[in-house]
Amino acid sequence: MINVTKSFLPPIEEYNKQVQRAWDNQWLTNRGELVLELEEKLKHYLKISNIVVTTNGTIPLQIALKLLGEQGDIITTPFSYVATTSVIVWEHCTPIFVDIHPEYLTIDETKIEAAITDRTTAILATHVFGNPCHVEAIEFIAKKHKLKVIYDAAHCFGVTYKNKSLFDYGDVSTCSFHATKLFHTGEGGAMFTNDSDLQHQLFYSHNFGHNGPLTFHGLGINGKISELQAAMGLAVLPYMKTILSDRKKVIDYYDANLDFSKLQSLKIRENTNWNYSYYPVIFENEKQLLKVEKELNDHQIFPRRYFYPSLNTIDYANGVAMPISESIASRIMCLPLYIGLCENNLDRIVTLINNNIC
Ligand SMILES: *Cc1c(COP(=O)(O)O)cnc(C)c1O
């Protein structure tokens, strides 16, 4: 069986070696030695100055919205994983959707201003599949209208834009270290900001608001990652180079062999150093997609319809029609992409696709 992805697992001895440290310390959570080391190593690897590692990639979005969203209207993208919208509703804010760019698939910055009202407090946009939003235009609009910018950068581990980590853009940006993501800790995530006051707020918010054992800076929740998850991160991180180069080989194969007379691929924004996180293909229509999907499934190959449905159509979101996002969502599929996917299997996938898109 070939799935859309397969978690990278380091040699188990290397994971055990890290876990042994937690045993030796008899310390399993509350920001122990492994979590602190993981944060330092990630800062170095990503060339960033601040990080708070968390227990998943959703809680940092909730914390950022709690701090910056003020229960107002949040301008957001309809084309993302459901978490981008559900956190807005969960935090008693209102999602206001703005349609996406048909090629970059990120929020269409030229349509943002028309959606701003006096209830708008923030923009929550996704760098979808690791492809950056138009961060300069969004920053300009946010400054002009005094809005906060939060980026769901769940897919963006290691991506740089104009030679800076993509995590450096926006007031807060967040990442996911879920098992299906490029770099993972089983479950995990992180939040990033360059503002030292905000960094302080993010930090205490993820630890019940604690200021030492007996006093509190303010309201908080439990977003802490455990030593056991950090152990996985420390064991995976040394393999990033291999992970990236192996994934690039798969992508190069698809690029060279798929029939692009009938398929559209993701357009990566200029000045981006991308991370090979997903391989979406866009069909001419949903019927074609369903035919190819069925053919692949019949051969035990399981791509995923990322992202479907368009989030404005989910009942609790109360979104208005988003024609581009709805059209793309109905026609897009992510192909299998993981380290160790061999050429034999790639050939089968490509042949099945090319022979069935007519
Ligand atoms: C994976 C993902 C999330 C959620 O991250 P978790 O670590 O699973 O909580 C949020 N947004 C996007 C775009 C994602 O792909």
From TrEMBL:
Sites where N6-(pyridoxal phosphate)lysine occurs are at 181
- Please name the SUPFAM superfamilies in this protein's record: PLP-dependent transferases
Q: Which GO terms describe its molecular function?
A: pyridoxal phosphate binding; transaminase activity
Give a GO biological-process term: polysaccharide biosynthetic process
* Keyword presence, Nucleotidyltransferase: no
**What residue range is the signal peptide?**
none
What InterPro entries does this protein map onto?
DegT/StrS_aminotransferase, PyrdxlP-dep_Trfase, PyrdxlP-dep_Trfase_major
Alphabetically sorted, this entry's keywords are: Pyridoxal phosphate
Q: Report the CDD domains cross-referenced here.
A: AHBA_syn
* Active site residues according to the UniProt entry: 181 (proton acceptor)
The family line of this record is: Belongs to the DegT/DnrJ/EryC1 family.
- Which PANTHER family does the protein's record reference? PROTEIN RV3402C (PTHR30244:SF9), TRANSAMINASE (PTHR30244)
This chain belongs to the protein called: dTDP-4-amino-4,6-dideoxygalactose transaminase
Q: Species name for this entry?
A: Flavobacterium urumqiense
